[in-house]
Amino acid sequence: MNTMKMLVKREYWENKGGMFWAPVVVSAFFLAISFISVIVAAIGAKQGGVVHVNGNDFVNVADFSKHLSPDDIHKIAEVLSMAYLPSIMPLMAVLAFVVFFYSLSSLYDDRKDKSVLFWKSMPISDTQTVLSKLFSILVITPLVPLVVGLAVAVLLFLMFGITAQIMGVSLIGEALSLSNFYLLPLEILACLPIYVVWAFPSVAWFMLVSAWARQVPFLWAVGIPVILGVLLSIAEAITGAGIPYEWYWENIVGRLFGGFVPGVWLAFFDASNNMQIESDHQAGWEILKASWAILGYTKVWIAVALGTVMTYAAIRLRRYRDEG
Length: 324
Hints:
The protein is mainly α. 76% of the residues lie in helices and 2% in strands. The chain is built from 16 helices and two strands. It has a two-stranded antiparallel sheet with strand order 1-2. A hairpin with a 2-residue loop joins strand 1 (51-53) and strand 2 (56-58). The longest helix has 41 residues, at 126-166. The protein starts with a helix and ends with a helix.
């Protein structure tokens, strides 16, 4: 256990730029843009600009606050209580890129710089090394942006809430009384195990190529499935033999590269068709239910089984392939 803990710490410190600083920098940029937008909107309203709410135009701050009904305030507070969703969306895009390139370099870089020889001299097995990398990629890497996103959501909540208060509308108390403010982060966090299952086969393939490729693992990891798909498409166009190339592009290529993107499983399994969102406060719960429902699909577990085989192959290659 102590060895695995040390290996996971090593992974974090060696990949801190992608795992920590990338989401932090993107969040800072997102906050700066939001802050500038709020300031510009507030100044415009103060100077007689037009504020649009529910199809009504209010030409000044006093007019705006005076004409908002309790129901309007409640609806705006509901939106404000869901600040976590827009906060994590850009971070999920960053996460997909980080996991993609982290997986690709995980077992290649230390062969390239020969540091693998040092680690093999330590009392650490190849199984421990590969599994520590797999755990860091699938659990630690997505966990960091979820936590950073929560901090950003709180700052956005305060930013918009204080601005509304200056404009004469009290939203913070109303938003804090809504269960969604507290439950939404937990509901999104509860989707993390689904991301682990969803991303595992894709990460395992990239780690396998990372352990095997002598040079340019990106070309091998991306090129092999894409070129095979192109060959199948050409063969079908020439022969008309009924080769299932469309199935291949969707279930192999699409599944492989879509595995890095959080939430894609909702579209891939049409899980979103079963979501019944009647009000904003149900969004997180419906996303959570639809996400966990994909575990009922056989092809999910077939992909996990393939990922397990590829992980085992990566461990074996790690043991015998030391050259860069």
